[in-house]
Amino acid sequence: MVLTIAGRKHWLWRAVAQHGVVLDILVQSRRDTAAAKRLLRKLLKRQGWAPRVMVTDKLGSYAAATRTTMPGVEHRQHKGLNNRAENSHQPTRRRERVMKRFKSPGQAQRFLAVHDQVANLFRRPAPTSNVDHRRRRSQAFQTWAELSGVTEAA
Fold it and tell me: Going by C-beta distance under 8 Å and a sequence separation of 6 or more, which residues neighbour residue 68?
């Protein structure tokens, strides 16, 4: 995804799990093999394990970075397979519009890293019943209250 910050193009690199959970993001001013390697190293360090399969768009930098950083991982490049990552950009676009654009790459990185983790907490997985959804939603609010230090008035 392209972000225009102060008249310059910046690239938003995003790693998304198979169920739509955003694992990590990285805002960079270039879109080459070194940038892809940085994203993959950051992702491996944070997750602690390599995935079995990685799906990306057709950018050649992903293939070069995967060969050196994660040689045992099956890499699939296909137009329609990375829809989860593409759809995860929509909330970012909405927030960017409300905030009237990001002011700097650092501000975008800080905001989106927190925004995506909070959104993961409240996101509804696709194959869930209403009962499961309500139970998970109450757990999410309880977790949010614990993390933010908000106490309920009794």
Answer: 37
pLDDT tens digits, 19-34: 777 788 888 898 899 9
| Nearest residue to 121 (alpha-carbon basis) of 100, 98, 146 | 146
Global pTM? 0.64
Which domains, ranges and CATH numbers included, belong to the chain? Answer: 2-123 (3.30.420.10), 127-154 (no CATH)
103-106: long-range contacts, CB 8 A cutoff, minimum separation 24: 103/5, 103/6, 104/5, 104/6, 105/5, 105/10, 105/27, 105/28, 105/29
> How far, in Å, CA of 141 to CA of 123, rounded?
12
Per 3-state DSSP, what percentage of the chain is helix, strand, and coil (rounded to 5)?
A: 50, 20, 30
Return the amino acid letter for 124.
R
Q: Is the pLDDT of residue 114 over 70?
A: yes
